[in-house]
Amino acid sequence: MKAILFFIFLCSSCAFADETNCFKRGEIDSLVTGFFSSSDNFGYVKKMATEKLKDKLPYYEENNQINNIMKHATQIIFNRGNPGDYESSKQFIDNYPNINNFPNNGCVWKVSFLTPEKIRKMCDDDGAAGYFFGFIKINGEIKFSSILGMEILRPDGSFVCKGFDRYMKE
């Protein structure tokens, strides 16, 4: 009997733990507002960085274009499924400022902001060029979990890809 009660408690606590790491629509709205409306967007997300990511941030701080890049990362991807399971998660794509594709059911466990695919494809046929900013929830708290820059910034502040450079100047 004790084993059964323990199992029930364990299952219910795991279900609750998973739910706390799922984004709610209101949290998405707050994250989007903070990501795009701050004059120091990078400062806003830096406060939410995971311990693992904090060591990598000085490299991006040296990039004098990072706030501009973030303002242009208008494509948003919501991963719905089991937290951390990229293979079986379904992606829902939106473009800022119209967020209409946020899934109303299931667990949205990751939110990513990236430069729009049409711009990424100007620089790379596979759409891999650009910048990607990822957010997850850990113990119910939104965390800036990943940043990936796949476009090279020259010392003069321009980008290697001319299409990307033009887009950033808009």
Care to describe what's here?
This protein is α+β, with helices and mostly antiparallel strands and 170 residues long. It has one domain (2-169). Helix content is 40%, strand content 21%. The protein has eight helices and five strands; from the N terminus they run ααααααβββαββα. The protein has helices at 2-20, 25-37, 41-46, 51-54, 57-61, 66-71, 117-123, 162-169, and strands at residues 75-80, 90-95, 108-114, 131-138, 141-149. Strands 2-1-3-4-5 form a five-stranded antiparallel sheet, with no helix packed on it. β4 (131-138) and β5 form a beta hairpin. α7 runs antiparallel to α8 (162-169).
Write the layout of secondary structure elements.
Layout: H1 2-20, H2 25-37, H3 41-46, H4 51-54, H5 57-61, H6 66-71, E1 75-80, E2 90-95, E3 108-114, H7 117-123, E4 131-138, E5 141-149, H8 162-169
Helix pairs in contact: 7-8
Signal peptide: 1-17
Keywords: Signal
Largest sheet: 5 strands, antiparallel
Contiguous low-pLDDT stretches (5 residues minimum) are 1-17
Class derived from helix and strand content: alpha+beta
> Whole-number average pLDDT?
84
Order of strands across the main sheet = 2-1-3-4-5
Describe the global form: globular
- Count all strands and give the number: 5
Query: Proportion of β residues?
Result: 15-25%
| Tally of separate domains | 1
Keywords: Signal
Signal peptide: 1-17
